[in-house]
Amino acid sequence: MARAQITQEVIEQINELYLKIGTYSGVSKEMGGSPSPSTVKKYIIPGYVSRESIVEKRFDKEKIPSEIDFKPFAANLDDWGSLCVLTEEEEEGIEELQKELVI
User: Fold this and answer.
1) Whether the Cβ atoms of residue 24 and residue 38 lie closer than 8 Å to each other
2) SS (HEC) of the chain
3) Per the count of CB atoms within 10 A, which of 30, 49, 57, 80 is most buried?
4) pLDDT at residue 74, as a whole number
């Protein structure tokens, strides 16, 4: 007899239920006994974050200025390398952006 394949949607459902219920057997019972508790255990994702808790942020292209002033850069034409050095504030901004990205 062929086994039923576990789809990505079922894996997500397993992990969502596991966050709420907290036990493999509880998830299995909630799903009607299929998959089994041992199968549920196999598909639990460590550090899984519920879809409900993910905040989606949309890019607003209207906030981009239409004209960019390059004069501050032109003053240091001899030292273009310094443009690649990030300030502490810029590094923190990048770290925050990395936390927001959903891959």
Assistant:
1) yes
2) CCCCCCCHHHHHHHHHHHHHHCCHHHHHHHCCCCCCHHHHHHCCCCCCCCHHHCCCCCCCHHHCCCCCCCHHHHCCHHHHHHHHCCCHHHHHHHHHHHHHCCC
3) 30
4) 62
Residue 45 lies in a domain: yes
Establish if 80 belongs to a structural domain: no
Up-side HSE of residue 6: CA atoms within 13 Å toward CB?
16
Model confidence pTM above 0.85: no
| Cα 9 from chain centroid (whole Å) | 17
**Which residue has 């990395």 as its token pair?**
98
Range(s) of the domain holding residue 29: 8-51
